[in-house]
Known about the structure:
The structure holds two protein chains of two kinds.
Chain A: E1 2-10, E2 24-30, E3 36-45, E4 54-59, E5 75-80, E6 83-86, H1 89-92
Parallel strand pairs in A: 3-5
Antiparallel strand pairs in A: 1-2, 1-4, 2-3, 4-5
Chain B: E1 2-11, E2 23-29, E3 41-45, E4 54-59, H1 61-68, E5 77-82, E6 87-89, E7 96-98
Parallel strand pairs in B: 3-5
Antiparallel strand pairs in B: 1-2, 1-4, 2-3, 4-5, 6-7
Amino acid sequence: MDFGKIIGRVVCTIKDPKLENIPLLIVQGCDHSGQPAGAQMIAADAIGVGAGEFVWYETSGEAPLAWEQRPPVDASIVGIVDNVRANAASAKEH
Amino acid sequence: MKLGRVIGNVEGVIKHPAYANTKLMVVQPVDEHLKPNGRTHPAIDTVGAGEGDLVLLVEEGKAAQDMLGMKRIPVRTLIVGIIDSVDVMARGNTGRSRVA
């Protein structure tokens, strides 16, 4: 699971039927503070997200399980981040 | 599985039902010397981990389905343990040094 920012979307008419009416959004991977980290990708939107939203998404074999028809996707957006409380300093001390 | 440090938590109302009553934490992956190592990411806590805890992370759907008791869910990243201690062989010498 990773944080990401929605930076765009793609429209695709000729596609696998199981992808019908699933929005395909361009996501920039981020860390918890919204700093870009990691790749950009196309993620299937399972919850109805707008541009610019800060989200979390799940990848790999579990991504299609957000839909009954199990579309051929390997990343699905499963939550919109309202607030992150984090104290990065606690990552340093051990 | 991986080693990580919980550094906070995530709140979000609009989410897939599988995440409805879960506790989502922010985890900083750490290396064997417990130094930050990689990008922070969310993980569902199933063992009551709090900020500052060193935790055991699993990234697999079946484990998530068993732990959350739900079938067919888009979930695979879980905190399944709180680490008490870490013993690491110092590079280049056979002695063991306790790290945490």
